[in-house]
Amino acid sequence: MSRAMDGNPGRTIRSVQIAFNIIEQLQTQKGAGVTELATELGHSKSTIHSHLRTLCEREIIVREDDGYRLSLRVLDMANHVRKQVENYDVIREETDELAAETGEIAQFGMEEHQKISYLYKANGDRAVVTASRVGTQQPLHSTSLGKTVLAFLPPERTEALIESIDYTTSTAKTVTCRDELLEELERTRERGYAIDDEENFEGLRCVAAPVRDGDSVMGAISITGPSSRFTDERLHDDLSKYVMRAANVIEVNTKFS
Hints:
The chain is α+β, with helices and mostly antiparallel strands.
């Protein structure tokens, strides 16, 4: 179902949907031609060509050889988005330091469109390869970042987000229902951090702590690594302390910036 910007069902504009589908396809395929795009997206060549010409005129894409790719102007948009996030430089510095201290993956995420969106990612010297990238999204209910945000948002916002969750199952350990999620959120509030116990990807465990903004939460910071290194003892001792300390540094710098 198409949804308006406020998350409620509403009227959408077909031509805008087509344009963004083209942009997403160019991003996924790292470039494509008219015929390929028409086939992938299920539209006529003339429709795709008209949209490509418009996107070229707006300098969002570039024609290259027999195909099209995203333009460098997209980089400027990405940089502008980062600047809109309060204290982005502190977030980046603390995430980098967290990765260096632990040798693992460190990430900062924020809630957008009922999902967790990755704002920044840093790899330590022992970091494993994962699918997460800056700008991509993951479910709230199966990630430590998502559960942290859900746990510490104002109750009415948490309730609204929980109502929107489609309990997709990524692994055998994924939370599959509302009651199970509520129990997990209560445990998260009690200890001050959330755990992803191979719930999003098999073999990976994560721990995340909230970065609070007054009575709400700006986002969360996490560490991710293989379950062989992320034992229960290490998760609930050293690693949880690392993420809570990093979250506190970001909070303090944001408060007094």
